[in-house]
Inverse folding.
């Protein structure tokens, strides 16, 4: 989280280009701005026994789980640098950005032979039901946008232990199950293969050339002396308007 906050501050100041963090979290339940306490089904004692943290964050949306086997992508984009495809806008809007994230996910799933889609009125990506499979959520999305700069993003279940989702009402939706790529394919899926596909699809959908770096030092290079400012300070100083979406 601290790394993401630092990158957001640097992007707002124009010291770095648009960046996507790709990572796996240790087991954690996160509560978005619209989260309901009742959507965490497990007691604190149970969470402690399972080694699951509970963390409130500033993304939009409800309750979700992050953990090993799940690929999390945090785009730190200045939306004002992206042209809109909508006639009434010059730059990328919030809804268009979220639809772009969904498109990245749908294309990644397609590369692995998993048919997926959007559901009207909901955010995220869902498998397409078949004669032997029910519709299930394979990826969740929740974002925060401040002064045009995005944070948070999506979580794609690659080989996640789906039993963790029994601890919550995922995204506040109890009527549909959660799935993973490995569950849909009934075979292991390599995380690095999925990472490579996500990088390709980000490049295709957002029409940006992507270069990978292994560390923050590699990314910053000539910007190592720039101080880190917590986003709360920046909001106070700059009177930022914020958008939350999930």
């Amino acid at each position: 989280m601290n790394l993401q906050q630092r990158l957001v501050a640097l992007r707002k100041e124009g010291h770095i280009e648009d960046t996507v963090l790709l990572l796996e979290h240790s087991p954690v339940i996160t509560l978005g701005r619209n989260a309901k306490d009742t959507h965490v089904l497990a007691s604190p004692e149970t969470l402690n026994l399972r080694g699951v943290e509970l963390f409130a964050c500033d993304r939009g949306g409800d309750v979700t789980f992050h953990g090993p086997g799940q690929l999390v992508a945090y785009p730190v984009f200045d939306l004002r640098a992206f042209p809109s495809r909508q006639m009434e806008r010059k730059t990328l809007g919030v809804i268009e950005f979220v639809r772009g994230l969904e498109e990245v996910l749908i294309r990644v799933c397609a590369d692995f032979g998993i048919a997926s889609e959007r559901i009207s009125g909901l955010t995220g990506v869902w498998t397409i039901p078949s004669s032997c499979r029910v519709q299930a959520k394979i990826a969740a999305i929740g974002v925060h946008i401040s002064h045009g700069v995005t944070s948070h993003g999506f979580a794609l279940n690659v080989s996640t232990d789906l039993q963790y989702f029994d601890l919550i009402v995922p995204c506040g939706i109890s009527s549909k199950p959660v799935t993973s790529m490995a569950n849909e394919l009934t075979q292991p899926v390599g995380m690095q293969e999925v990472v490579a596909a996500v990088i390709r699809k980000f490049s295709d959908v957002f029409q940006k050339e992507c270069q990978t770096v292994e560390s923050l030092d590699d990314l910053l290079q000539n910007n190592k002396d720039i101080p880190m400012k917590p986003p709360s300070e920046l909001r106070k100083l700059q009177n930022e308007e914020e958008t939350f979406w999930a």
